[in-house]
Design brief:
With about 350 residues, the protein is mainly α. It has two domains: about 1-40 and about 165-360, no CATH class; about 50-145, abc type-2 transporter like fold. It has 15 helices and four strands. The protein has a four-stranded mixed β-sheet with strand order 2-1-3-4, sandwiched between helices. Helix 3 links the parallel strand 1 (about 50-55) and strand 2. The longest helix has about 30 residues, at about 210-240. The radius of gyration is 28 Å and the shape is elongated.
Length: about 350
């Protein structure tokens, strides 16, 4: 056992001396934290307003009432103009949506006839478009109720509760931690490939030291390093950008170690196909870059093309990022915590089995 801890210390010293490893495992995640923090710190999408083009062809009192109703919504910056002018502004990106209200008839509304109101919106903003269309529906429903003197079936009573507010950087920090765990697991396997390529592993076979002990010492160092990464990023985020950690620390650390173990197994499986360190780096990069940009840690999955979503839903980093956001921020899990854990464990067990099956010391 004493020999094992000496190997652990040797691995730590080797990692500290390797400036490239320090960059990828510590400096790069912190660089991402400061970069995204400088850009998104304090950004709150809840305060967003929308430029709405409003075309009301009806010039009666009812038409003027519609204009007043839309202008009374704080989130709407209402612009009046012709239908063609407003649609041109929408195409140029100057409007978020354009609402076109035709000639209206109170008698027709009272008799139950519907009037078609057109809502044009920017198709690249699907998430916000749902909110705007819902708001337009509510406005028109209230106008219709008042115009036809229909009684209200429900009344609302407002009650205030305290809700934690999250900024964009709060949302990004868990993704950065997930990315750091991925890089630690994948890039850390290069050390083993280098030792194998230099025949050091082969020479250890002639000594009393079990070669498997070298591997387990390396794995332990990286698991501990994943926790250190997480703590450093969270401390920096809390001190510099005032991020809010509302989750249970045991769950946070457990999720980090599960993610690190998953990517360590995946890394060893990938490098089992490589004979040289250069080949191993190429294989790892082929997996690393798609996961970094297609797993939803930086960009929401909802905005991605439907063609890519099956690929994104198969990536372990997608579920690690979702699990970290739930554990750190207390946000509802997009896929469900049980599904996140199940898929990460499945990736861990399958890649571990494949790595063991293909593993070779020489």
């Amino acid at each position: 056992m004493r020999m094992y801890w000496q190997l652990v210390v040797a691995n730590v010293k080797d990692m500290v001396r390797d400036r490239m490893s320090l960059f990828w495992f510590v400096a790069f995640p912190l660089l991402c934290t400061f970069l995204f923090g400088a850009i998104f710190s304090g950004v709150d999408d809840g305060e967003r307003t929308f430029d709405i083009g409003l075309v009301v062809e009806d010039q009666s009192l009812l038409g003027h009432g519609i204009v007043t109703a839309f202008e009374s919504v704080p989130a709407f910056n209402v612009h009046r103009g012709s239908e063609q002018d407003e649609l041109d502004s929408l195409r140029q990106g100057k409007r978020f949506a354009v609402v076109v209200v035709p000639e209206l008839s109170i008698q027709a509304m009272a008799s139950g006839s519907s009037t078609e109101v057109l809502v044009y919106y920017d198709e690249s903003q699907q998430n916000y478009a749902r909110m705007v269309v819902a708001a337009v529906d509510d406005i028109l429903a209230e106008i219709e109720r008042r115009a036809t003197n229909a009684p209200r079936l429900f009344t609302t009573k407002t009650l205030s509760i305290h809700v934690e507010e999250f900024t964009t950087i709060d949302y990004l920090i868990p993704g950065i931690i997930a990315m750091a765990s991925m890089q630690l697991g994948l890039f850390g396997t290069f050390t083993y490939v280098e030792l194998r390529e230099r025949k050091i592993i082969k020479r250890l076979g002639a000594t009393p030291l079990p070669r498997s002990m070298v591997l387990w010492a390396e794995i332990l160092v990286r698991l501990v390093m994943s926790v250190v990464q997480c703590l450093v990023i969270l401390v920096v985020g809390a001190l510099v950008f005032d991020i809010k950690v509302v989750g249970n620390w045991i769950y946070i650390i457990g999720a980090v170690m599960l993610g690190a173990a998953t990517f360590i197994s995946l890394g060893y499986f990938l490098v089992s196909f490589a004979k040289t360190n250069e080949a191993a780096q190429g294989l790892v990069q082929m997996v690393h870059f798609p996961m970094m940009f297609l797993s939803g840690i930086y960009f929401p999955i909802e905005i991605m093309p439907p063609l890519l979503k099956p690929v994104m839903n198969a990536m372990p980093l997608t579920y690690l990022g979702d699990l970290m956001r739930h554990n750190i921020l207390g946000l509802p899990s997009q896929f469900g915590v049980q599904k996140d854990l199940a898929i990460l464990f499945a990736w861990l067990l399958v890649t571990l089995w494949l790595a063991i099956k293909r593993f070779r010391w020489e």
